[in-house]
Amino acid sequence: MNRLTFLVFTVFLALSSATQAQLADSADKRAALKMGLYPPDIIMRHQQRLGITPAQRSEMTAAVREFQSEVAELQWTLQSEQQTLRQSLASVDIDSKAALAQVDTVLALENEFKRAHFRLLIAIKNALTEDQVDMINQEMRKRRAGAAER
Fold it and tell me: CB atoms < 10 A from the CB of 67, how many?
């Protein structure tokens, strides 16, 4: 019975994590925009209208490549450490000290991931001109006003 309960709980967590990841992606974009940072996909979609130069594009794609390289390794490590944490929590009698140490490891990796993401967003904003930033901000204000009218 305990194994069945654990299995159901594990499947529930996996489905919940997938749903949260999708919601977090759009929530992360909104949070970044509120902080005055611009996710790369938004810049890519509007690059012609923003007048992104080849030099800017090169700078941004280099930042994205660096981010992807760094994050790929982090994701593998994070997944492994999360599995270790899940295994330690699956015991009937959990070693609290070891489990909390593993929690610290997982949280540190998640922090590294977020820090890398901010580094990318900052590099992208730094590649934009003041006029381009103003254009993006004006467009966001228009969209918010349009959404508020609905």
Answer: 18
Cβ 48 vs Cβ 61: under 8 Å: no
Alpha-helix residue ranges (DSSP H) falling in the chain: 2-34, 40-45, 47-50, 54-89, 96-127, 130-149
Name the one residue in this structure whose structure tokens are 């904003």. 125
Q: Is the pTM of this model over 0.90?
A: no
Q: What is the distance between the alpha carbons of residues 50 and 57, in angstroms, rounded to a whole number?
A: 11
Domains contained in the chain, CATH given: 33-149 (1.20.120)
Asked whether the predicted pLDDT for residue 36 surpasses 50, the reply is yes
Query: How many Cα atoms within 13 Å fall on the side-chain side of residue 22?
Result: 5
Q: Determine the Cα–Cα distance for residues 139 and 37; give it in Å rounded to an integer.
A: 14
